[in-house]
Amino acid sequence: TWKTQQKADGEYNIVTSDIYGYVESVEAEEDNFHVKVTFSKPFYPLNALFTFILHPALEDPKVFNEGFVDNLHPEWGCGPFTIKDGGFNSSEKTVTVVPNDKWWGDKPVLEKIIFRQMDEPAKKAAFKNDEIDAAAPGTASAYSEFKAVAGTELHKGVRLHVSGIDVNPRRVKDAAVRKAIFYGLDREALAKIRYQGLPYEEEIPGSMLHMPFSEYYADSMPQAADRKAAAAKILEEAGYAKNSDFYEKDGKRAKVVVNNFSEDNTIKSLARFLSQQLRDLGIESDVDQQPVSNLGKVMSAKEHELSFIGYSVSSNDGTEGTKQFYSREDNDGAGSEEIDAMIEELFSIEDAKERNLKCNEIEKKHMEEFATSSVFYNGPQIVCCQKNLANYGAFLFDDPQYNPSAWSHIGFTN
Predict the structure, then answer these.
(1) Tens digit of pLDDT for each residue in 93-122?
(2) Are residues 358 and 105 in contact, defined by beta-carbon separation less than 8 angstroms?
(3) How far is C-alpha 290 from the chain's CA centre?
(4) What is the number of other CB atoms lying within 10 angstroms of the CB of residue 399?
(5) Residues with Cβ within 8 Å of residue 15, at least 6 apart in sequence
(6) What is the pTM of this model?
């Protein structure tokens, strides 16, 4: 695990090294259940170490980078369930799992679980036709259709998630344009469209690092009493001048494309509304509508300009997230030596409160100066289930990703 996670620019294809970049050595102790880890310098939080363990087969860089393509290798993992022989079907986009006889924890209740990847229209039809037992409606239109199906039960909770927009600094290179977007967007109006028709309300969040109920939360988003005037001031001070409806500089018009990959009508409306907001700020904009199948390819190649994004929040500590979102190394060069130095100092602060308040300071500074990721909702987790499906849905901090035993308890009532 340590060897594969050491360097983000090394032979292993990882996003960031985080805590593993500070580990100097890992040595075996007196038995197979203890190791001695030596750091090159103090690093916090320590509980970020070994949150996952990789099988030794993945030490081979080629296997690490390509070994799971069309082969999920269940023998390299563990859990209450394992993939059935022949249970992975990439053409039908299904995975079938069965109980793992090598699992040492609670034995699963179910004999089999089938996962199916579907776009929103297909998911709606499958749930209505009783072909699937659970589906998560992400929008109001899907929610209204799912809840109307006879025998449906809603499993609801707070979503441990941060969503907003990503303004790609590779394609939208002028920080002034990105800052004008941050100051000028009406985030409340965007959130209202996103959740119109859903049984949910929230105050607009302002942090990529902490949920609003966290003791460390602070709103870091740039704000202005007059959003449009603030955006205009930023552009004009950067040398842009209004020519008819849009700002120009050196004969080049300020323009940002909104890339959307969802077929859901709510998200399409959101993309159109966002594009119109940009035009109202004097930034020319169109919507580039693409199929969901292009999402991974476009985003990984950084070919988008402005897209909707979302991240799961799995911890109350924002330290590693601060580096991932705001260091130049992990943010396509958008940042500064000053912010990088602040991040480097962050990992030496032992006190959790002091460290996380410093995270907020860094986030606020990066958002105000470089403006790459804007936040406008957290949202609910709503899963529509067949009425007798038990222990599945809104898991909160008991998500099976972090507590594998949660899968053992999923079943059906009589």
Answers:
(1) 999 999 999 999 999 999 999 999 988 788
(2) no
(3) 20
(4) 14
(5) 8, 324, 330
(6) 0.83
